[in-house]
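Loading example: each entry is read as two labelled lines plus one structure line.
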Amino acid sequence: MRNKHCIYQESHSIVSPLGIGSLENFEAIAAGNSRLRLYPDHWGIPEPFFASLFDENTAFLHRVSRQGKALSRVESIAITAAEQAIEQAGIDASAEEVLFVLSTTKGNVELLAEPHCDDPSAVYLWHSAQMIAGHFGNPNTPIVVSNACISGCAAQLTAFNMLQYSDKYKHIVVIGAEVLSKFIISGFQSFKALSPERCKPFDANRCGLNLGEAAAAIVYGRCENPDTLPNDTIILEAGAICNDANHISGPSRTGEGLLRAIHRTTEGFDTKRIAFINAHGTATLYNDDMESVAINRAGLQDIPVNSLKGYYGHTLGAAGVMEVILSSIALQKHRILPSMGSENPGTANPLNVCLQRSTTDGDAFLKLISGFGGSNAALLFSLKQEKQVTGDRLQVTDDKKRGSNSWEQIAKYHLTPALCKLSPNIDEQLTQQYRHIGINYPKFFKMDRLCKAGFLGAEVLLKDLIDDEKKNDDWGIILMNSASSLDNDRRFQQTIAEDNYFPSPSIFVYTLANIVTGEIAIRHKIGGETSFYVMPELDEELMTELIVQSFNANPQLTHILCGWVNVDSEECEVRMWLYRRGDAHCVSSGRREVDIV
Amino acid sequence: MEELINKLKEEIIDVLNLEGMKPEDIDENAPLFGEGLGLDSIDALELIVLMEKEYGIKLKNANEGKEIFKSVRVMAEYIHEHKTK
């Protein structure tokens, strides 16, 4: 009911330890194959782990770009997946009308273990994105979405909004890619989150997740009239991101954020059409319970649910993209893939877990995903059929219903590097600012420096403007930076040195850039969209575009806190703005500029 | 035991970043989680690392911590009994 354009999948590809190609991967898992296995002694990690890894000798792991530069493992698999998808779509990836969006949580973080790396910028996520887009000669600055485990779905939503509300691009190549390393495995081990055997999503005896490596790419395009699309085309109907505002690593026991994301995504859609729900289903006790609660509260408990983690493990930044591709093929074949590893379902609320191969008449599926930072996302896909039943959703809603899309900047806060340098070190500066504000929030001292910086910016900016006593589900947070969580990644790396190996869970939890959005959401009970993007430097034009699109896509959003929060080595920069929708109710108004020294 | 309790309090304040707290502020008989110091699940995982790093005690299952981290005194008694370094 709110879509101007029809956004559809033009092509896709998967690169995984099971092989190259979407269909090859689908057939492999449909036959019950998996590369999940025990690694008793790998990468110098003292404890064994169960995972799905690429064979180190695989040629496509060690590629050279068209410009003759050696590519990292994650860049190599991302390019391999994108290459196939771009070729199948028949688009010119070097055209200005094509944009690349990369979803990854840790990119080249394994390079931190190599102190004498040739190119110090290689460890930055934006650098990987540039290597990938550059390989195809694409002229646009690629966007990196780093929203923890929901990144893959968040990237598709970014593409959806870009195509829906901007005329700049005609095709968007969404790539999800992740490789594993001692860094990631040891962190999850310190969280006691890994299962010692094949994971069992939604099973009563589930005992943790498995991790996996993969890359997946989808080319999204847009058209005015879905009737012109071939039958069986997969259409991205809608999606939403919502924050639990509850805890930075534990999911909400009531499934609050996921429930809201489901509601906003399925609003106005006949849910009887949904053939299956492809859930996150990580096989951790709390995630699967939370999903069961949210699905029941949404009244969707009778719809078959599956998880694909029992085939590939949790592929982090790739998961949301890869699982959408496999579910899309299943929908086209009118099949529901069984949840490998599930034998005896047992979750907080009962679910219709798909245990056997089955067929379906439904013509839509719902993808769910949740992650650290309290983030949750839902995406709804439908199958284009002879008679397009989705017609009623593809009308432009008039502006009265949608709410005004004008917006204004009402407050800003800048903590510049010059201000930071007044103090001998960032830690001291941040503590001074905290004391100056005069609040009592002991958790501040547990945060990493990126979170502290973002937290302080939000604290100053939102003071008197936001009601911390009530839920603020109509507020959103969009932050961006250049170094993602590298400042804290370097700290975690020190805890996994060979001669002093004690990986710290309280440091590891902050090795995701979007945790800062989670900390702010918890503090101010903000339950709308929370997103984190990575780019080489602050691009105000792009930031404005993302804000406008978020206001457009989320009619209920009244305010967006946005900004640039970057901490890298001994440099700290915070630039934050608060925007509100033009005609929306606002708790306060007026312009506020704050500088604290 | 009292010496170990005091040492443990200092270590807990340090690894859990309990800003502004001194060892004498922690009641060794009060619960560490919930009402006591208001610690959460990530703190519990960090205490597991502390036990391994400082005392050579390895907990396989995070659930074992529930009993051990009842209070600083219970934790000290467990460490006294099981420490390997």
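The longest strand of chain A covers residues 6-16.
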